[in-house]
From TrEMBL:
This enzyme catalyzes the hydrolysis of the N-terminal peptide bond of an N-acetylated peptide to generate an N-acetylated amino acid and a peptide with a free N-terminus. It preferentially cleaves off Ac-Ala, Ac-Met and Ac-Ser. Also, involved in the degradation of oxidized and glycated proteins. InterPro entries: 6-blade_b-propeller_TolB-like, AB_hydrolase_fold, Pept_S9_AS, Peptidase_S9_cat, WD40. GO terms for molecular function: serine-type endopeptidase activity. Pfam families: PD40, Peptidase_S9. Keywords: Acetylation, Hydrolase, Protease, Serine protease. Residues 533-742 form the Peptidase S9 prolyl oligopeptidase catalytic domain. One of its GO terms (biological process) is proteolysis. This is Acyl-peptide hydrolase. The keyword Lipoprotein does not apply. Coiled coil: none annotated. The keyword Acetylation applies.
Amino acid sequence: MQDEVGRYVITHKDRLLRLGADLVFAICEDKQAEVVILNQGEDTQRESGFEEAGIQHQNYLCVDLSKFGGTEKRMTETRAIQPSDLYQLRALAEPQMSADGRFTALVVIAVDKEQDGYIYELHLMDIQSGHVSIISSGANKLRSPRFSPDGGQLAFIVSQEEHGEHVYVGETSSLSALSNWTLNEGTLAGAKFKDLFTKRKLAAELSWFPDGTSLLLAQVSSTLPDVKEYANVYFKTDGTGLLRQVETQFWLVPLEGEPRQFYKQQSGIGTMAVSPNGSEIAFTVQKFPGKGSWEADIQLVNVESGTVRPLTDSNGPIRAISYAPTGNSLVWLGHQSAASYGTESLWMTDLVSGQSRALLPQFDRPIGVIQKGDVSPVSGTDRPVFSTDGQSVYFVAQDGGPTHVYKVGLDDGTPVRLTGDAQRCVSHFSVSTAGDVLFVSSTPDKPEELYLLRGGIEEQLTGINQAFCKQVRLAQASRMVFQGADNWPIEGWLMLPPANTSTANTATAQDAPYPLVLVVHGGPHGAFGCGFTLKHQALCGSGFAVLYVNPRGSQAYGTDFAAAVIGDWGGKDYIDIMNAVDKVVADGWADGARLGVTGYSYGGFMTTWIIGHTDRFQAAAPGGCVSNLISFQGTSDIGKHWGPKEHLANVYDGFETLWARSPIAYVKNVNTPTLLYHAEGDDRCPIGQSEEFYTALRDLGTEAVFVRYPGGSHSYGTTGKPSYRVDTQERLNRWFREKLGSTKSTVSSKKSP
């Protein structure tokens, strides 16, 4: 009964109930009250009295509280958050809105503990009534929900391991009347859906043609022989493995009639878009596929003739393309720099001349979703969107910590932030023809939910993670600005363990100083931000203060800031980070005798670098690390293209330079107990990087533990098996508890963070 009611509460807009799902759970457990599910128009006599309590006459759950006692106590009981709470959290992705603004479609992803995988659901919400229809694909990945131009149809893709990828299309009005349906062996039982198109693998996302009668789909086929022969320096990519021989076919798939292939090429594609008149397709291709570089170009293919013409001659990456309503230009995300630290901006390309110009020349911040927390296994949705009149463009950007939705006029250049001034992270967004903005957002202490910005008023549409939040104590993040090297301002955040009470989610000064875990982000051109991060919360739940900082090299602070780490890994970036640690220790929030450090990728590099240059930390846990810049250049999938640009040296003419910047060169100095963890299938920072460092530590007699996770990729911490993700965090928590303890100590003074 609890699961049944919980599902109803979560999917039927808990915001309408004014009750709280945890209270409903408690009532059901004790069986001390009657639970009645009422639909609009049913038994109005039984509805009387609920309106006064703030319950709307929609689809809702009503509870007779007259037989229930102890409600107040149950509502306030909470527990510490823990790594296994990954199984309770839900991720939200790819929100879409129908043309009339009435319906929203949303992908909701849960963790399947039993199958050690993920469960995908499509939630179709009627905004007016609050009714939600759920189509579940189980363990089969569901993606790319797209309304037809008039909103009357909804299409999406389901990936079935044994049956290939299926494209389903159904009438929006019929689907909105459903409750819950489950895909089974390629069919959708009982629903008015058509299995329109099936191929082994489809590229990118689906797109509707403007007349609403056909879909654009790209089929990808690949082969990998037993004996592989390569003649280019680039022969593997993280997450995919060894490069395959690839063919891409473009298909026009009508709702009625036979699909038609109109173009094919012997390579993969990036993103694609249909022109407003439906006559051509724009798509991106890698410019130098054999070099492993990120340069891309846009090409145009005629739907009738299949002829192709190149549009751009780019010096940098291009992705997330969108047509202007007039059809005479495209906007896209990318940059035109050959540097390794290039910051993506918003560009527009004229379709006649092929000339491109930056729409935000003075807004030196990364456009797109740079960080989104660590719960969701899918990438953010950040394709720019034209306004209906074609005079402005909507986009997302990260400015410091927050990520927001912005709007800019084509000839203005000054972005306007639309989603308030909150310390939040927008991870997915879309825009309706009326200019309504639908977006997924989280904060450091609130997981993802869906929001609607309409007429300047923001409304939360879902409470999918609300019940979970009421069960646990969540740490809050305090923004801090530290003085880094050269007196540069360095932004960071301090999270303190929530008070162990039934009513408070905030720590108190009396508990300080805390054992502190410093967390370093990857990149180095990544960035921490304001998204919900389970890793940080789980460490706080285990009794640690958590400090995370954006040192020089991080994006979100301008190109010069991002470039400041080039050729200087372990230099001033190290000073930035250590100055932040010094500050929180000096202010009395952290115990200088109980410090831990962890980080992943470049964060793993910095962790191994730190313990080779100071004994201040009592425990370290580098993950997916880079420890040897020399071997990294020859074994990483980006080592030869990206490494020399980042470190200003090649193995064959800069050996000494690379060695001097490699943590392995200082391993003899390490006295800190070290836990290393790595995915065996990592091709970005290959597992040999951890093997080298671990072997040296053990050979020198330094305490070290090495944990290897089968398969996976460099991103296994967000996309890998849930059991590995949980196991990693549990090991980190245990390691730091063992080495740092979690009891409070005394300090003479404390300043507010």
